[in-house]
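Batch manifest, entry 17 of 40.
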Amino acid sequence: MKKIALSLTILLGALSASNATAFDGDVNAGKEKSATCAACHGPDGNAPVNIYPKLAGQHPDYILKQLKDLKLGMTSGGKEGRMDPVMSAMAMPLSEQDMKDLSAYFSSLNMTEGATPKDVVEVGQKLYKAGDAERGIPACAACHGPRGNGSSLAKFPKISFQHPEYIKAQLEKFRDGTRKNDHNGMMQDIAKKLTDKDIEVLSQYLGGLH
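Output type: structure tokens
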């Protein structure tokens, strides 16, 4: 819980800072460099295959962090950053400016809306907005916001409208420790307390959260 409290403190500090950003990616350059990305993430950043994430409308700072972490995962042999057999290899030849341009481009696009099954709305909303104090699970909304829009400055991703299958896979990876590039281990700590049912419900709920 100390790690979670620290991350929330960082978030509040970030949100109180200026909304101005020093992000200097070039949208047009990013569009030209995105052809290879389109195979999995779609030409408009909305992945046609549900196991891949939608990048459209995601915060540029968050996309940039993930690209850097994926490259680091490969160069460190998985000891640091984020290791993914496909994406780490794709990130290897990218320069930092390439990453900034791609991040700027995908963030400029519009994410397609999703839907939440009616049978998970009540349980999903409760877990997302209130957490579960008895199990030490904080509200997801504390970092990702009531509408799932996240925070660019704090590098908390937009998770509303994301493919449920992708969210489910990432929560499972955080839970089993195969993904560990979260700030201060916060997501790993939370995911370890989630049951398979919790993960299924949250994933489905977030698909249509707006």
